[in-house]
Amino acid sequence: MMVSIVVMLAGCAPTPEPTPTPTAVFASEEEAFAAAEETYRAYTDALNAVDLDDPATFEPVFDLTSGDFEAADRQTLSELHAEKYAFTGQMTVVRFDGISSHSSFEQVEASVCVDVSGSDVVDESGNSVTSPDRPDMNPLRVTFVLSDGRLRVDRADRDPGTACSG
Fold it and tell me: Which among 101, 132, 150, 153 is most buried, taking Cβ atoms within 10 Å?
């Protein structure tokens, strides 16, 4: 008798609701590129706001990054903090061009030019520890990934093919 009640109840159970298909975060590649640019500019602003004496100021940088890129930022900022170095000046994004997007805009690639001529890393005495050979412009190919509904910087590689002047 018990078996038949279980079978009967199971037979009368409502069919499960279908799982909705996830909605794309961006309606177009143009929107994805705009979001990527906003993310990279926010990342640059977060770096410009870092006070190497105060590790709490590192968190906004980490919040905009993911994966190995975030891990590298964590390591670099920790090392600079341990050395008692300081950032001076500002970096500026002077160019941002979307290149491609993949898989419903879950990955976006862009060409970015960052002017680093007004920034430096200095020791406790105020002496620059930045290589004197560092170029003023940093041409990058940046990869963004969608995580928790927003793009994050996942990779940035020097890209000599990116023209940052003129």
Answer: 153
Which residue is listed with tokens 């499960």? 16
Nearest-angstrom CA–CA distance, 29 and 128: 41
Q: Which residue carries 């670099």 as its tokens? A: 76
> What phi and psi, each to the nearest 5 degrees, are found at residue 76?
-60, -50
Q: Which residues pair with 114 in a beta bridge?
A: 93, 138
Q: CA-to-CA distance for 153 and 134, rounded, in angstroms?
A: 23
Q: pLDDT tens, 69-104? A: 999 999 999 999 999 999 999 999 999 999 999 878
Helix ranges, 52-158 (H) = 59-63, 67-82
The token pair at 9 is 């109840």
Contacts of 73 (CB under 8 A, 6+ apart): 58, 61, 62, 65
3-state secondary structure of 147: strand
CA distance 135 to 77: 21
CB 95 within 8 A of CB 112: yes
| Residues 127, 60: Cα–Cα separation, whole Å | 27
Domains and CATH numbers, the chain: 26-158 (3.10.450.50)
CA angle 95, 163, 139 (to 5 degrees): 65
